[in-house]
Amino acid sequence: MALIKEESEDIKIEDAITAKQEDAEEQTDLIALKEETQELDETEEKDHCEKHHDFVTEKHNRSQTKKKVSLQKRAQKTGSRSRFTCKQCAKSFSQHEHLKIHMRIHTGEKPFTCQQCGKSFDQKRAFTVHMKIHTDSTFTCQQCGKCYSRKENLRYHMRVHTGEKPFICKHCGKGFTRRGSLESHVRIHTGVKPYTCSQCGRSFDQLGNLNVHMRIHTGENPFSCPQCEKSFSRKGNLEVHMRIHTGESPYTCQLCGISFTQKGNLNIHMRLHTGEKPFTCQLCTKSFTYRRDLKRHLQIHSGKKSQRRPVWQEKVELKEKVWKKKMHNQPREPQPYEDCQAQSIQEYE
């Protein structure tokens, strides 16, 4: 639920900020023009009281000329409003500062950090909106009690309960609760990757993936284990690691009862039941259950001598064979092979 709340804060934030910045610039121009006009009018009135009519007329003509020049300058400024262009996505801005703010989307820079929850933002406006979560949550979901600082965010959240998915992918028909989620999904079909690492040039389809990738260059591991002080770049990796300490294996095979610490390991294990062999040799069309077996098989074609496998790996494979034999002999009462740990079935790539 927290993920839904946080993701909603970033919806269309760039467009909203850019629009406000452009509006603010136009308002500044209008205010400056009004002040200039007012100042000139006051000067004319003063001159009218102190000097002769002919002299006042001459001043008035000069003031009108100044007004025309000023308006021409304003028009020139407006005409060159989009002279700063992003080299990565070709989006244009009227001020260099606006371009700098926009570039944070591509670089992943987030200079505004919440001191209460640690979440960072690339724009001050987004940070300000986020802070209302901690200080002013006035919109509450009547079904689960979750609070939001904006009515729009509550409306998005309610789709979780109603199942409404108004944004449909035209390529595959998949539905989404948010337009931003649909836009991210469409990149799977189009192959567009607008977020590029400034250090190595690798591109990503989502900003969050770029932010995580940047930790490779910075060495940042913000998620630390409280029991062994080991650090991780991803929160999900820490959660999986914690199961080593807790002994938790939440993913259980419904056919044989074996449990795993990771869902991916359960999916790999299920191939034993389904007989799926997704890894096929392109030279002889022989198929394998695990990628490691395909790699070992390819050495036959290349003429390379296969390296001896670790003893523990041989034991695991032996237990798998024993278990398969039991399954074959007792198909109606499948039994788990003995002492199989969650980490035994892993795909070594």
UniProtKB/TrEMBL annotation:
UniProt main location, coarse: nucleus
Occurrences of domain C2H2-type (ranges): 84-111, 112-139, 139-166, 167-194, 195-222, 223-250, 251-278, 279-306
Keyword line: DNA-binding, Metal-binding, Nucleus, Repeat, Transcription, Transcription regulation, Zinc, Zinc-finger
GO molecular function, one term: zinc ion binding
Localization (cell): Nucleus
Bias-annotated ranges (Basic residues): 62-76
Renumbered residue ranges of the record's region Disordered: 55-79, 324-349
Annotated Gene Ontology cellular component terms: nucleus
Family statement: Belongs to the krueppel C2H2-type zinc-finger protein family.
Role noted for this protein: May be involved in transcriptional regulation.
Protein name (Swiss-Prot/TrEMBL): C2H2-type domain-containing protein
Annotated source species: Cyprinus carpio carpio
Lineage of the species this protein comes from: Eukaryota, Metazoa, Chordata, Craniata, Vertebrata
